[in-house]
Amino acid sequence: MGGSSSKSTEPEYSAPKPAAQVQKQELDEPWRKFEWDNISELKRNLEEFTPSDPNVKDIKIIVAGQIGAGKSSFINSINNAFRGRITSSALVNASSGGSTSFTTKLKGHRIRSGKVALPIVFKDIMGLEPDALAGSQAEDIINALFGHVKDGYEFKKNPLTREDQHYTSEPSLSDQAFCLVYVIAADTVQFTDDKLIDKLKIIRHRISERGIPQVIVMTKVDEACPLVQKHLRKVYYSKKIKEKMQMCSDKVGVPMNYIFPVKNYHDEIDTEDDIDILILKALQQIVNFADDRLIENSDD
Length: 300
Prior knowledge:
Layout: H1 39-47, E1 59-65, H2 71-83, E2 107-113, E3 116-124, H3 138-145, E4 180-185, H4 194-208, E5 214-219, H5 221-224, H6 226-230, H7 239-252, E6 259-261, H8 273-299
């Protein structure tokens, strides 16, 4: 009796998706060629570098960036790679959640290999903040690149004026910087404030008029991607890191081949070749771009 049958109320079984249907974060092939085993040659080439213009003693490079992105740590990491130990040329703020920049004055940091000073000087700038009158002013960064700002200048809410004792009205070629390195943390790229991006675009437009190259160093790649955190050599196999670099390129307008993913030294007490070679490769490209601009400037 009762020809009808009741339907089961138990949930239907759903088989797990095959691995092929899960979005892959590791690509089958690296999306950028990279030689991991030529660290000695890379280091030697940088140690033998001399500026193309004999009238310029040092290649000067401005390092700017969002607060907490790792500007000072990047400078220290370069020195670590050359000296084979952890160094502290640029002081770093270790407290988390800081809302103000630890760097408050313009200071030059010379890169050293052992006890030998290389002709490469990085100038650390106060961190950029989104608000118009917070952090280092776009005008101060532009003036520093053009050689108008002397070391020791303390960044203020209002940009440097010609009347200030730290202003150089007629900078020599040696006073000028020939590359701007902007440091962006990979784990916060998508949250970068539009007002901050607008500042970067203003700077990029002004310095492009003089042919000064702009490079992005993308730090904290290990914190942005579990694959890379487990194995740093997977950085160019990581789909996530490539997407974040593309996001940087789209937002700021810097070409992908001017963007370099790195891991700064943070909790390590000894240097590691895989960290060093990413840092040194980025430095090599930065120095090459800066020297190319120096040559063009000398020919003008």
